[in-house]
Structures are given as structure tokens and as C-alpha cells.
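Standup notes
- DV: blocked on the single-chain target, sequence here:
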Amino acid sequence: MNLLTDEDFDQLFTSFDHTAFRFETRDRYNVNAEQEHLRRFLAGEPDPERRWRPWHDTVRNAVTAGKRFMRVRAVSVPLSDYTRFGLVGAQYNNAAGEDIRYMERNRYRELGLPEHDVWLFDSQRLALLHFDDDDRLLGTEIITDPDQVLRHCQWRDVAWHYAVSRDEFIAKHPV
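- DV (later): unblocked, structure below
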């Protein structure tokens, strides 16, 4: 397995032509840079917009160029602290132009959707994210096999059909 460098992974988000879609399937992501922001959120002092400003700029630039960023997050209920943190932060991603939707994990599994995280670019390339047992990202592998890409496109369409907007999800599961 050949993993991308961080620079090559980052370039995926500026080099796609039409759509970037993400399956997020984990209940948490162990990212060192987020730990302080999560701690502040739990203490009632959130500032997710500042933390993610570079990402929001990337999304805005892509959306201005006519591209789409989309995501479906599979989440366990009751919501974990990390999921609640992500729901609050998603309002800023959505404001930047990314469309993040949610689905309860039980329903996600009933539909037979993938149990791994990927980015799907232009319905042609998969970026399969590899994690360790402590939810740390180990790296990303590019997959272009047509059968695997097609299957993920089909899963994306099913997930998008059944997932609900952040606001609709929060109405049912308040943070």
C-alpha cells in the first residue's frame, strides 16, 4: 500500500474538477490539533470557526469556482462529546458552502454503507483513509479501481438520499 504524503493529500482538495464527497464513519478522530478546541468546547468556550478557517477558505474557493463539497457523517446515539463538538462546528462548514449531512449509525449499518472513511473525488478516485486503533490518521491511499469507485459512488447515492441536514439532525438530537 502506497500512502500519500501530506502535501499530496492536501492537493486533492484543490485539484478536483466537480465534487469531493466524504464518508465519515468514526465516533471520534484523534487529532492533536483538535484536542484543545474540544477541551474548550466542553468547558463552554467553543471557537471552531477560528480552528477551521483554512478549511473554510478552501471550501469557499472551490464553491466559488462551481465545485461541491459534500459529506455524510454516521454517528452513534447517544451523541459523544466529539460528535456534539462536530455538530457545532459543522454550521461553519455549511456556511462556507460544504453540505454536511448526518445519519444515525444504526440506520447507516442497516443500509449496508461502508465502515471506513473515504473521500471520493469526481466519482473517479477514492482516497481511503487509514487509522490506527486510537483513531489517529495513519495515511491515505488512492484507489482508482473502477469497481471499487463505482461501489462507493452507489453507497454515496444511498447515503445522500437517507442522510439529513445538520439542522434537522440537531432538532432530533440536541447538542
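- Follow-up: The chain has a mean pLDDT of 92.
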